[in-house]
Amino acid sequence: MAKRAAPEVNAGSMADIAFLLLIFFLVTTTIETDSGINRKLPPTDEVVDPPIIKERNIFTVVVNKNNQFLVEEEPMDIANIRQAAIEFLDNGGGTGDEACDYCQGAKDPSSSDNPEKAIISLKNNRETSYKVYIAVQNELVAAYNDLRDREFVRLNPLLGLTFVEANKRYADPRFENERKKLKPKLDEVKAMYPQKLSEAEPSKNN
Amino acid sequence: MAKFKKKQDGGTPAISTASLPDIVFMLLFFFMVATVMRDSTLMVQNTLPAADQIQKLDKKDRVMYIYAGKPSSRYADKYGSQARIQLNDKFATVEDVGAFVLAERASKRQELQNVLTTALKVDGDTNMGLISDIKQELRQVNALKINYTTRLGDYTQNTKN
Asked: Which of A179, A180, A199, B24 has the fewest Cβ atoms nearer than 10 Å?
């Protein structure tokens, strides 16, 4: 008997099956957002002896229920908040022990002593909208990041990275071998401009 | 001379569809890999605000999610149009947040219990009052690491209506 050749399997319907699966995954896919602004809440236990903070070391930002801003008692547009915060943080008006040798600000005696003492206080109304609140948070974090970038580049000119990029790389598992090298550099800059952002409990009126 | 006349027998040849399955499979694999199955169905509107100074969230097993916003149109008749909190698959009140966090924390491995982050996925049009209430609750149960989940974009998108 002659050997019969194995009949070829018809692959014409393969595309249909693949399409079916494709459409299923297309429909069920949701690209999750998994990034945002990290914040740390203050612990609840009452501080027995709250430290006295000088008025000039606090930068107050108030958002009212109509989403308008009051920065250091003056109305301001959101576009200018970043610059105002940078000027405040980078002022370096302190003398003696409190002097700041890396600040490039105006050294105005009526503004902050040094970045370590400078505190940004953000106060919002209960009716402030969340997206406006996020916009302010974003601008304030941006102010810190701008200053940290500047100092990071100044201290590590050969690295070719800004603070934000270095921070991202630090968190990236692909660059695990660089972690040890980056950590002290990042910590140094973080200590120069510590993020002191206090959120007051919101008010009902005004 | 006959050589040159061979191909003149008329009609366009049919396009081969043999590579179609390959192309479809390629797309299929992309979507299979990119798919993240949501573990809870959203019952609230969730248009996240935009920000550009963002950091990536921790690994998924170290994060618990709290959703808030106006109930989506499907639930609007039943739950009204006031912003609500959603925990897992249910609407919840502010008082439930503490219990939720404790339950989530207890369900994680021991070594992760101290490094948990709470991701707040809140609709942009929510009032801050609700969010402050959530934050107060989180402080009560000592869940201090939070993340305001946002999408990447310029902050000026938030101030427009």
From this structure: A180
